[in-house]
Fold these 4 entries.
Entry 1:
Amino acid sequence: MGLVPLLPMAVTEEANGEWVDAASGKTFESINPATEEVLASVAHGEAEDADRAVRAARAAFEDGSAWRRMPHGRRGKVLHKLGDLILENLDRRRSSRGTSRC
């Protein structure tokens, strides 16, 4: 799955490799404090959602899971790529708003 679009968007939780809504269906708005612009509608996670995420994370590290079987060098590359994508999207967003990296 690719990264979610930057604006406008609804952010859901990721559990077990899938984006899911909060169990309650509740959301809240994430607001830019400088402009008061609504950035996203975000899933409002509660205890049930945290439990679901913990179960998914534990399953990812069980013996025989794909992540566990992946060589550590490959896992490192995956994590570095994720970091690069985050920075790339931040840079793209900043440049579209005329702000610089701090």
Note: The chain has two domains: 1-69, 70-102.
Entry 2:
Amino acid sequence: MLTIDPHERTRIGSVELAGTPPASKADFLDRLAIAPGRPYESAKLSERIRKQVESLKRRGYYEAKMDLAARLGPPEFFETG
């Protein structure tokens, strides 16, 4: 017998950017579909980041790069309101 105990999905608590995005922070994060409270989906986010870097390189930002650094904590740590 297999028992599955589902838990609440991991959500984004906060977002920090280092460096200077080529657009406003809000627009840039919107393109990546990142916002506090949204579900954290590592594989999907990594794919969106990859596509965004490719787009930047096509527009002349040849050294564009992005790295994802996730810090996980208990659910109450990420309360959004």
Note: Residues 42-58 form the longest helix (17 residues).
Entry 3:
Amino acid sequence: MPVVTVIVALVLVAPAAPAQSRSLAIPKVDFVNFSYPWIELHGVPDQMRWLNPRERNKVTLVRGRQRRENDALITLDSVKYGDLARKGGLDAAVVLTYHSGGTANRQYVYI
């Protein structure tokens, strides 16, 4: 049975824009070809944690994927839209999966 660990990241898209104009811009973001904050983890994490949105390391997806060293793969699994912040605007929740090449896979959720 594969081990899945979820790591949550908070990413704000156009934070200076009013909620209404930000809501209109969110669906236009090309999350399939996008750079996300990223940290390299060694081993399998044993708990969920927040990722610093100011993290300098990035992973850049091209056509929804990036091949990593030693056959690891990062894929875009889903993008869902909704009023997650409950402020009357539209937000995006993006799920990336780090496929280790073995049974320990990690999921990263960006909001």
Note: Confidence is low (pLDDT under 50) at residues 1-8, 10-18.
Entry 4:
Amino acid sequence: MIDHAKPEGGIPVSEAIATAKAYVQEVFSDTPIHDVMLEEVAKSEDQNYWLITIGFSRKEHKKTSADSLTEHMAGITSMSALMLRRDQLLERDYKLVKIDRHTGDVVEMRIRDLGESLQ
């Protein structure tokens, strides 16, 4: 069940989630990102912060030696263009956004390593 209650002098989790999503989209505004979604929510051990994991997808172009050769060729044939597109994959990124529960301010954003605990 989602805790919609406002902590004493603080913001509800729904507001913190909206803030985290907006913050991630703003920070990555120069890079097209897709499928921005809530992944996890927790409170810090001291109960002063919302720890919100936001996941999103973005294209990552992995340059290969074939790409370098293709770049130097005069004109790109449809076959070589298809080869370039093959290496453009959507990768999923996860960011942990730490939000002050009392002010609603974003305190930090960092890479969320899925192998470690939120705390």
Note: Helices lie at 13-27, 65-72, 78-86.
